[in-house]
Design goal:
By secondary structure, the chain is of the alpha/beta class. The protein contains 17 helices and 29 strands. The protein folds into 3 domains: 60 residues, Roll (Urease, subunit C, domain 1); 251 residues, Alpha-Beta Barrel (TIM Barrel); 183 residues, no CATH class. Strands 1, 2, 3, 4, 5, 14, 15 and 16 form an 8-stranded mixed beta sheet that branches.
Length: 568
């Protein structure tokens, strides 16, 4: 807002002309959960009045269309979309999302503070308002090799940035409960700037949660069940209901949302690929799905806007009221949240993507090509990582497998058991290779591979044939990162991800085309699942979400918080 208070007052009472008035609107009131018939007056980037306005420098007659406050993405990793922030901004705005709170811990695990600085700088001039929560756990645990280790001192200089809202998802809650000194210092530093701390505590006990919240953590997006959600709401914690590509919790939780408990509930996507954002939407999809499952549309919109603003102390947005930002979504249809137009800061959004991007220094991928793809077993009874479709949790799957004459594991499509590898990619001195067996990938041949492996983002690969593993590794090494499907000695499809092995600056249309090619390649290798195998694969290396995961150091039991053998 460039106007002085006197100018604002005069425009609000029509002594002077507002810049813009929306006439004949059906205004969604997130305070009373009612629809108000009236006009909306805007001066510069601010709403200065609702009610009856007679004239303005520009008048738009909405003819009874609904107007919603701009939606707010409460927690998202841009990196998981596969596109750079500038393109991400363009995509989300057309879905009515006008503010996003990001946690750049994916790129921070690869490039450290340089990655954080890139995400802050690249979002400086995006039309979408992008706020940052600083990565709290890089790496997420000491049981994996990341591209960086960030201590409290490394983060401290970022807290004064006006778009930094606090400390991001504190996933190392075992470390917090053990009073890890550096972790506690990160919390203290954030609180010294009066900033917030996001949570990430799946399966934490009730007593552990008491300590977690007492330490200053105010949100959590890891609720899978009503019991988990209830536990957090009873303690005054904000719950972000997550509906992303791999993790889908909305259907299980939304039926328990009501007029009594909704004030602390928001929506987030966490991790959602661009192909799904384009097909479904972002927070607008959460609103639509919630309504389709029986939630009052006004309540769904409140959760997607006002509640998220409160959760992040963004008190200048999230509602249509005097003094709030003129972030407005014009709707053709309320129940389906059909977006007609989006106004950001009082200006109509142009969907044309920008062509100028902030460049990031090349991040070289170091991968040894001298790798044995054999998995030696001392027993035919093993514990496999059991993939759970559309979920970040995995199972410990006990099964019997076949071995060859040398005692090496033989993949079996009938048992849905394939080889699983994590290859460290950050240091030329580190040749770590984690080996395991995966159940539930639902492919019949070939190999899928990606340099997206949460959270340290080493190369993760799964499949059958040793030669195909070598080809997939060589392909992604030459591209400096990406996703590929390989079978029978041929590269069937590939998406290069030149930005830290996580994102690409290619046009969104080209990215979508390459993702479709990857999906067609999946059919060629016999994929029969109803989930994203690429994103699901990328979460098999996350050693803070139960049960059985794999890192470059080995097979990891999250509940025991230690390594285990493949053999039972």
């Amino acid at each position: 807002m460039n106007k002085n208070i006197s100018e604002i007052i005069n425009a609000a009472i029509e002594k002077e002309l507002p810049d813009l008035v929306f006439k004949n609107a059906k205004i969604i009131d997130v305070f009373s959960l009612e629809v108000i018939d009236g006009d909306i007056a805007v001066l510069d980037d601010m709403i200065i009045g609702i009610g009856k306005y007679h004239n303005a420098k520009k008048v738009i007659d909405l003819k009874g269309k609904f107007v919603s406050p701009g939606l707010i993405e409460a927690h998202v990793h841009i990196e998981s979309s596969l596109i750079i922030p500038e393109n991400f901004s363009t995509v989300l705005l057309k879905h009515g999302v006008t503010t996003a709170v990001i946690d750049p811990h994916e790129i921070a695990n690869v490039m450290g503070i340089d990655g954080i600085r890139y995400m802050i700088d690249s979002t400086e001039n995006t039309e979408l308002d992008i706020f940052v929560m600083l990565p709290s756990c890089v790496p997420s645990t000491p049981y994996e090799s990341s591209g960086a280790v960030l201590r409290a001192a490394d983060l401290k200089n970022f807290y004064s940035h006006p778009r930094v809202l606090g400390l991001g998802e504190l996933m190392n809650y075992p470390g917090l409960l053990d009073s890890d000194a550096d972790l506690l210092q990160k919390i203290l530093d954030a609180k010294s700037f009066n900033l917030s701390v996001d949570g990430h505590a799946p399966s934490i006990s009730a007593q552990g949660l008491n300590a977690y919240i007492s330490a200053g953590i105010t949100t959590d997006h890891e609720c899978e069940t009503y019991e988990e959600m209830k536990l957090r709401l009873e303690r005054g914690m904000y719950v972000f209901i997550r509906e992303g590509t791999a993790a889908k919790n909305l259907e299980a939780l939304i039926k328990y949302v009501n007029y009594k408990n909704n004030d602390l509930i928001c929506f987030c996507t966490d991790d959602k690929e661009i192909i799904d954002i384009e097909k479904e939407g972002s927070i607008d999809y959460c609103v639509r799905k919630a309504v389709s499952l029986g939630l009052d549309p006004l309540l769904a919109i409140k959760m997607g806007s006002y509640n998220a603003a409160k959760a992040h102390k963004l008190y200048d947005r999230g509602a249509i009221a005097p003094g709030k930002k003129a972030d407005l979504v014009i709707l053709d249809d309320l129940e389906n949240f059909t977006v007609s137009a989006v106004y950001k800061d009082g200006k109509l959004i142009d969907e044309n993507p920008k062509s100028d991007f902030l460049k990031i220094n090349d991040h070289e991928i170091f991968i040894s090509e001298d790798i044995s793809w054999d998995i030696k077993l001392n027993s035919d009874k093993i514990r496999a990582v059991g993939l759970v479709p559309n979920n970040l949790f995995t199972n410990e799957y006990i099964m019997n497998v076949e071995t060859d004459k040398n005692g090496n594991f033989v993949p079996d499509s009938k048992k849905d058991a394939v080889k699983l590898f994590i290859v460290e990619r950050h240091s030329p001195q580190n040749n770590n290779v984690g080996r395991g067996i995966l159940h539930g990938l639902k492919i019949k041949k070939g190999v899928i591979a990606t340099t997206i492996g949460h959270d340290s983002h080493n190369l993760i690969m799964a499949g059958y044939n040793n030669e195909d593993f070598s080809l997939a590794l060589k392909t992604l090494k030459e591209l400096n990162g990406g996703i590929t499907v390989v079978a029978d000695g041929n590269v069937l499809a590939v998406l290069p991800l030149e930005t830290a092995g996580l994102m690409t600056s290619r046009p969104v249309a080209e990215v979508l085309e390459k993702l479709e090619e990857l999906n067609k390649a999946l059919i060629q290798i016999g994929f029969t699942g109803d989930f994203s195998p690429f994103l699901s694969l990328s979460f098999l290396s996350l050693p803070v979400i139960p049960k059985l995961k794999i890192t470059d150091m080995g097979l990891f039991d999250v509940e025991k918080f230690g390594f285990v053998n493949i053999e039972v």
